[in-house]
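User: Hello! I'm new to structural biology and keep hearing that structure can be predicted from sequence alone. Could you demonstrate with DNA polymerase V? Please show me the input and the output so I can see what each looks like.

Assistant: Of course. The first part below is the input, the amino acid sequence of DNA polymerase V. The second part is the output, the predicted structure written as tokens.
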Amino acid sequence: MAGKKRRPTALAEPETASLSSSQEEAAAKPALAAEAPAKKKLSMERRKHRKELDKERHRHSAESKDVLAAVAAAAKTKPQQQQPAEVVPEAATAVNAPPVPVVSGPGLHMNVFRDLASPEPSHREAAAQALVAELRQVQTAYEKGARKGESETEDGDGSSQMEAEKDDGLENCAPSVRYAIRRLIRGISSSREFARQGFALGLALVLESIHGISIEAILKLIPNLLEYSVSMKGPEAKDNLLGRLFGYGSIVRSGRVSGQWAREEGSSIVKDFVNEVVKLGSKKRYLTEPSVAVILDLARKLPQEAILSEVLEAPSVQDWFNTAADAGDPDALYLALKLQERTNAQKEIFGKLLPYPFSPEFFFAEKHLLSIAACFKESTFCLPRIHSLWLVITNMLVREAASQSDVNASSSKKHKKNKKGGSAEDTKKNLHSFCEVIIEGTLLLSSHDRKHLAFNILLNLFPRLSSSSIQLVLSSKGVHGLMDVLSNESSWLHNAGQHFLKELVSLVSEDNDRRVAVIMNLQKYSSGRFDCMSKTKTVKDLVAKFRSGQDCLSLVQSLMLLFVDEGCATDEPSDQSQTTDENSEVGSIEDKDLFGQGCTDFLKSWVVNTIPSVLKNLKLTSKGSSLTDSEMAKCIEEKFQVQTEVLKFLAVQGLFSASLGYEVTSFELHEKFKWPKPAISTSIRNECIEQLQFLIEDAQKDEALHVVSEVKSNDLGFYFMHFINTLCNIPSVSLFRTLSTNDDNAFKKLLNVESTLFYEERKVGPGLDSTKMHAMRYLLIQLLLQVLLHPDEYWEAAIDVTICCKKSFPAISQSDDSSGQASNEAGVEWSNEELSEEPNEDGLEEPNKDGSEDSNEDGPLEFMDVLVQTFLSVLPHVSGPVCFSIEQVFRLFCDYITETGLLDMLRVVKIDLKGSHRPSGSDDDEDDACVDIEDDETIMDDVEVGDSDAAADELDEEMDHNSGDEVDKGQDDLKEKVDHEAKDGDSAEATKSGDDSDDSDGMDDDAMFRIDPYIARIFKECNLPGSDTKQSQLMRFKLRVLTLLEIYLQRNTGKCLVLEVYSFLMQAFVKSHSADGSDQFKQRISGILQKRIFRAKDYPKGDGVELSTLKSLLEKALTLASRSRYSTVASVAQNATFWLLKIINSKSCSKQELASMVDKFHYILIDYFNNKKSRLKLGFLKEVVRRNPWVGQKLFGFVLPKIGCTKAEYRRVQTLELVDCILKSWVDDVSSATKVLKKHLSQLCELIQEILTNIPENKSRRQEVRRFCTRVLQTVTKLNLKERFQKILKPETYSLCEAQLGAAFAPFQK
């Protein structure tokens, strides 16, 4: 067609068919005659644009012949019917006139066919309506002419016989109608744009409107025009088959089949049509489902008896149904279910597809589902689209569930109405059977495609299911299959699993009941490890969505039921292989073992850890500051209700067990307590106790939010102790383990003292004493749980704390009947002679034995000392909540701490198990020496320092090169200038003897006895399986002690003991660098020194601060600032210097005392001038001079003669800046400055001569020298010392100044 010549565009436009007969006859001949000349006159310009018009030309060329024939036939028929013959000459004269826009006669406009393929639905509908209107007019005119006998004349015209010559059964239709029918049938096979949809719509409307068209003829014409054979392949075969399908659909939509059956008794049109459709569907798999849709569309237009007699009794349908179950045809099952729904037929006409008699219970019976399982498996052919069969199945399942939901929620009248739908048990049974047989047993055990289909089916079900039904659907195999998919990222199903999980979370995010059901099933069938196995945070995110008190309470109660559910994991498969096919990746052995024996402990552990975490999501201040007191009280009450439920669960499951059966009823509490039948393991009970500790800690932290009037009712600690006492009094309930004598004694004392403290606290009323009692009560509660958690470990500490309570609050000792049982207390004996001498559990004697006799000769230990020692004995190992309670008690009692207790804490910070492991002559040794906390008189001379080189040989070459040689040499140089250097005698002795541990530096016997039990305990437990290393345990111990020290410093920054704390912390800080200590430990000490000491508002003052101590500390700080190779240590040392000078300034020191302080600066400056290895930053000294001008006055005369002797040019210039800074500091004290400058004027002149003679070559340094000289001249002029300066100035110096300083020296020229 593309190669043929194109007809004129005037003939291609069908509007000319509507002209009057005379005009059309006259116009046709000139148009045909002008065809050839028109083609010859095509210009070159039109040829160039031919490519742009190719698409339009090909379309018109394919239709040109048929269009011309139809137009000619219409043109010759219409003039005879509408206009007389005498009008023809007049019409002939109008050939050259413009086309008439509106015509009166009927005709077929070809543009309607073009618009039928429009992408816009509205355009297609308008075109179809226009086509129907025109064809109606044409057919009406044709029928009128036929009745007048004029049809023979029309048929005699050869040009109009194009359609009529063919035996198509459309003899009663006008030629234009025949053409339109053929054109529409061809159009539904076209894949161009939306032609198939538009032409099918047009065919349906034409058949519906023009009853002269025979349906039988159309049924024959469609396969004739749209031929198909087995040999046909490719798009042509597909287009023809789809064209047939759309053609049959148009016939059904027209309503002609159902109408003809209703009019003609005994008509077989329905059977014939159904047979044709079934025959078409059997040709290709993708045609079957839409063919079923066509049949169902027809069934909607037929009465029930017609469906039973015509559709279901059709031979092709019966044959199809009989073989569908064995062949696995989902389309046949879909058709059977829809027809059964439409007719409610109770006949054996569906083969094996449907049970007889039919009912949902029989259909979803396990036996029947197994017989049609192949149909469900084969429905995956249309993925990713879900087969229509599943919508029917979903509706059947959900309709029953919805019916039962209405029954439960409606009135009694509606209840009776909905009873017919079946009972709730039957509905759940059907749902369970379907999921077990089809989802789990058929799809999830098959290929990836079918697993994907199973996930999609579940997603369709979930939105319409209740929470109880979700628990049935989200079964064990489904959860395992999902975890199997999500755990393997390389599988193509991984994305499908992620999508399923995302949609599932989205569906249940707004419904608390469904969310709980999903959480329970995911964790129940994954043994509490769904997030871990699926590598997601699904369960965690779902739990976090519970925010209100009632929602959290509902979740907590569900988790409790899950914990005690005896059959929660008994139905689980032994491994994941049950949900894995040959195409799935098999999980690891560890994953398989997860679902085996003992997996219930994982689930119980998750429940125990999740229940307390629900409280963290409970938002009490969601409205922000807009909450009133009453609203806040209500919110607190809601949270307290959840807390008590959690507390009771953890206490019952963790602390107690029932001696008879698994359920116990408390008549006092009006509650029933239940335990799981399998005995709870020790590890789970320990987790319960630990979570109890965290729960009580959180309650103690939240007490700041409590309304004053609600404090009593919301005291969770009191509620817990009362609950414990109540359960202990129930005969059939006992503690989960038998307590030893010591533990039992401690347990009873803790209960007794806490109860007494509670009533005393309420008696005293709000105040400091009440706060102290409250904090002590919570510490007793934590110790009680600690005693139960660790047998025979904490009873001594617990008893000691109870005794401290009695000494701190004498009122409670009067009501304590057991206070006289001193023989069982084995802790601290409060006598005036000595402390108790009971050995501790490690076989080591307590600190109060032997060695403590010397330290306690003047009297017994103070109450706070004993409390501190008790705290130190438990801090290395107790849990975080116990530490928090200790901190709260210490915060309230730390004002009473003595130097003994404080030193015990400080020595813990200094302990180092690993030792220094470094050469004694290294910078690290030097740093340690600078901050030694003991006031030993042992002085290391130069020989001792040199001898330490032998220890350096034990290290590698790099350390030897970086530390040993350089530092030893630098330190020897420093010793030559400095007369003494403080060094720890014990450390030096340890170095000589080869012992590399200096943990016991400065400790007397008493201190050693107090510290050794803690360290011995760490050594004892460091070898236990799963325990931390001894160093990590010690580091945790140190950090906890640092917390107590920080609390002390917050409240006591002005006490003299702060200097002691500073000394110990500074030494520990330096050691942590030299021994490669923990970064956390370094940062913690640095933060305490900077924030709590150096930047504190107050500092030690008064006569209690000894000047000798300040002098020693200042010397060590300056040495660290000038020699430490760690920038952090140097920075802290500089701040320490500023802080110490501030303390010195607060004292009324004499000039001699201040001069002795300045001598310490002399040592570091000498080292700076003479030793290249000095790390002193003169910017630090500038800041010292700026803050303390008196230091600059004392240093001025010392520095001037040293500058000229300085070997390094850079350091010489830097020292000039220091002198310049000193000169600037004299601005406010002219008299003193004048005296000092007069005294050192000659040295100043000599310095100017020296630096100008050896002026640096570097430009910037040269400018700095000139700037310094200019500053000196300005200061001399300001202090009126110009004449004296000129007299002292030597001629050589004068010449140098004149040459180098220029205009700045002009005022001094003679």
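User: So the tokens describe the shape?

Assistant: Right, they're a compact way of writing down the 3D structure. Reading them back into a model, for example: DSSP finds 66 helices and four strands in the chain.
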